[in-house]
Amino acid sequence: MRQSNIGWLFLAPATLILFVVGFVPFIYILYVGFFDWNTNAVDPTLRWAGLQNYRSLVFDTTFLNSLARTLVFAFFVVVSELLLGYVLARALMADRLWGRQFFRTMHTLPIVVAPIAVGATWRLLCVPGFGIVPYYLKLWFGIDYNISTNAYHAFATAIIMDLWHWMPFVTLSLMAGLTALPKEPLEQAQIDGGNKLQIFWYVIVPMLKPVLLTTVFIRLMDALRSVDEIWMLTKGGPAEATRFIGLHIWINVFPKTDYGYGAAMSLLTLYVTIVLSWLLFVAMTGRKGGAQ
Amino acid sequence: MRRSGIASFVLWICLTVLTLLPVWWMLVVSMRPRVKLYSKSFLIDDLYWDNFLAVLNSSTFLQYLWNSLIVATSNAALVCALGLLAAFGLSRYKISGGDNVFFWLITNRMAPPAVFLLPLFLLFTKWFVFGDFMLFDTKIGLILLYCVFNLPFAIWLLKGMLDGIPLELDESARVDGATTGQVLSNVVLPLARPGLAVTFILTWIFAWNEYLFAATLTSSADARTVTTALAEYVSVTGTNWGEMAAMAFLTTLPALIVLGFVQKHIVTGLTFGALKG
Prior knowledge:
The structure holds two protein chains of two kinds. Chain A is mostly helical. Chain A has a single domain, classed as Orthogonal Bundle (MetI-like fold), CATH 1.10.3720. Chain A is built from twelve helices and three strands. Chain A has helices spanning 6-32, 52-58, 61-91, 100-112, 115-126, 132-141, 151-180, 184-191, 196-225, 228-233, 245-256, 259-285; strands spanning 2-3, 35-36, 47-48. Chain A has a two-stranded antiparallel ribbon with strand order 2-3. In chain A, helix 11 (245-256) packs antiparallel against helix 12 (259-285). By secondary structure, chain B is mainly alpha-helical. Chain B has two domains: 1-48, no CATH class; 50-270, MetI-like fold. Helices cover 75% and strands 2% of the residues of chain B. Chain B is built from 13 helices and three strands, in the order H-H-H-E-H-H-E-E-H-H-H-H-H-H-H-H. In chain B, strands 2-3 form a two-stranded antiparallel sheet. In chain B, helix 4 (98-110) crosses helix 7 and helix 11 runs antiparallel to helix 12 (241-262). The interface between A and B is large, with 98 and 98 residues.
């Protein structure tokens, strides 16, 4: 390695672009959040409002409900994907398997499909009167499944759609992690007479921790910000049953042009996201942030 | 061993059917004429292409398709070039504060887009305005913007690959009198080519797939992309399911084409190199 500042020259273009489209917006929104600014109001200029935007945000029940709903959604999605993904990854790790490459490739498909197309596809499956899901649920199980009137059905469908979209990723990454584990500690634990549960909890989980942390982190971030699929599937409805936070910001800020308030909403959402990922990090590594 | 192999096989089959079912249904619907739309059979009854033809004959959709192609290709090229430079710097030089910069670069990828929609919209419409030109509703705007999530991804992927190229090769080239630029173009670049190809394809797909920014930061056929076309179609036309399915299928097509090529790398890429897929 060369110790020199030439390295910065190579980093500079990328840093510059990310500074302009990644960092400047952040600073800008921090600034706008302190103002009252509505371009369609009588006075379309920025007026200093201090913390007023944030104050009203704390009493905005639609916003808070939407935030809470997003957290519930993310919790269900991440937990079920992790559990199911682990079970599947273990089950799929047979030593000899015919057509493994083909299966793995098919498994990658949902990950690369455009979220908007995922939403459209699931709409084709689930929309009342047209889709096959309501039809066969009625025919075989007598269930009146309707995502445009029943809030629970819509919410559950959003979760299942997310499972379809992202569980392959969890399965594949856990498989990669499990395959890379050293064999000796597992064999040692078996010789020492550990049962399956003990081996799982005291040997596999600690060794798999970095992989688990990465996977959960990525899935959590994605679940918190999913907009496109939901927008296509339900438009956030019925009522507000599937209106998650990203969607809430998107469909509120622009038609109302209430930019100061929108900035406050965006920032609070970002704050919650950061705090959550920090909590996750601390919980999984057992380490406190900051000075070690 | 043999038994678990068979059980695994059956499990894979079931999972694959579940994975493909929605995509298959989309294809089935896209090949149905209006009169047969409400049939609940899972089979393609006849090869009916009119839905696809109708979609492809619409000049707006073709324009959107073209925009998507330009935006995704330019963005992927830009990201690969800048990503290669950055990865070269990070992998070959000890940069003071390099770790922090690296970390910051990566966090950009994780930023929730909905949070950045508003500031970017305001910046694009009010600040990044040069005379008559503003970034809002331009392909260039989207190309630059998609760097937010694609550039960190590319830097990660490429850094891992450059780290795998032995430093001795650089050194011996330098001993032979090569300049830094020559090392990069004659030693590193040829060896990094497969990695660059993967990076290009994946970033291309991500740019192609993006919807939220494209929907918010563009307003006319000059810059709207194919994902916004699909979303618009769904909101406007409601129940023309056949054409909607055809459009969704066309949007998915690039992903289907490159699938086999990217599958080995996608897990590595998405987990920031923490996992080798």
